[in-house]
Amino acid sequence: MLHPGRPIPLTLLWLLAAIAPAAATATEPAASFFRPNIVLILSDDEDLASHAYMPKTRALVEEQGVSFGNFFVSYSFCCPSRATILRGQYPHNHRIEGNEWPTGGFEKFRALGHESSTIATWLHAAGYRTALLGKYLNGYLPERHEPAPGWDEWFVTGGTFSNYNYTINHNGELIRHGNAPEDYLTDVLGTEAVGIIERAAAHEQPLFMIVAPYNPHSPATPAPRHEGLFADVAMPKPPSFDEPDVGDKPAAIRKTPRLAEWQKKAIEEHYRDRLRSLQSVDDTVERIVKALEATGQIGRTYLVYSSDNGFHMGQHRLFVGKTTAYEEDIRAPLIVRGPGVPAGEKRDQLVLNNDLAPTFAAMAGVEPPGFVDGRSFLPLLHDGKLPWRRSFLIERREMETHEITGPAIFDAIRTADSILIRYGTGETEYYDLNRDPFELVNRIDQVDPALLNSLTRRLAELTSCASYNCQELEDQRIEPMWSPSAQK
């Protein structure tokens, strides 16, 4: 029985039909038909509201491809999410559960041996030219650490979130940049990306490239040409902003006072800085598209745009951050343009960052390792009516004091219309997202006990799932189930 998460012959047929030029002849090498370029542009901490202010990306990628309205991250924090993107696993399986040692970070990723098997090593072994530009994993220091296995082009910085005064490790050579306008990191990454595209095209080698700028991560420094933009743009303030009544929230939020005026002003200005900093990412997308067009590669390239997590700004009285299970943090943009991908279509299925690595593998015709928890969403690009996962797991395990944005340990199960969150403190939240999309009313005391029992059981199963078992659990219906405790 075919499993939707495994590369199958039909996938190769789609690729053949989509990528083979109309004038192709039987004498041309078949391999070129099956190996499209794959380019991921991965922003840092980009929320959905801010993504609306990227006109070039929306015109060149979103309007020319498919957008996923329900794309989520399984752990809304930088290093756990990026480890998931590289390996296609839930954090409880790759065990990167924070940004710093010992819960997570680059040092733990390397110590666990994870660099020996990532999307880079899989595609490099299949003949791809692989390139990573920008951010790798938190804790990577370009002056101290060598390039990771599987990457032919390593153009990576670290140790700072500044767009100025940084060091890049370029295939082992250190390149230092200052604070001149031409040193602006996102622009430097764009220039390097264009060069890599041109070199790969000249050598007729398929390219897998990740371009990972810091923007709009704090401090969200804009390029000089974008300073002063959006001065009059008002930040969206949903009903959850500075939430008036948090009496049904966990204690950590109940104890949080209403936002002070200085906090509200700071959040608004930071929102504008984030919009400003995203404009250079928007420019980089345009430069990449133009380079693909100029080299004749645009028709055989999957161009993917996403972010490592969302970001909250004042919702539920929380200042700024990203490590909750609330919608603002777990949602991120995902749009895909590529060969055979219909233009301007939307998909509503529940897609995860767990799915990126296996999807890239499927695009390249590569079988991912058995440890992968995610599944390829390549079929969804061609058929928006396919059945998909019904639920997924959200995790948090880090206790790092610089990121205090709510209770530090939780597991949550998200379905198409609800979320159940169980904290390490024993506190629980349940939100009916159809009735309450802003998660204002915790209905844990109102939910059907039989449904609550089923959700709790499925949550427990997901927290220990691995590989195809995760996919099987995610696909199963959650039927209300009575138990002795639920009948009391």
UniProtKB/TrEMBL annotation:
Pfam family, one: Sulfatase
Domain Sulfatase N-terminal stretches: 36-366
CDD domains reported for this sequence: G6S (cd16147)
Record keywords, A-Z: Signal
Species per Swiss-Prot/TrEMBL record: Benzoatithermus flavus
Signal peptide: 1-26
Protein name: Sulfatase
Gene3D superfamilies linked: Alkaline Phosphatase, subunit A
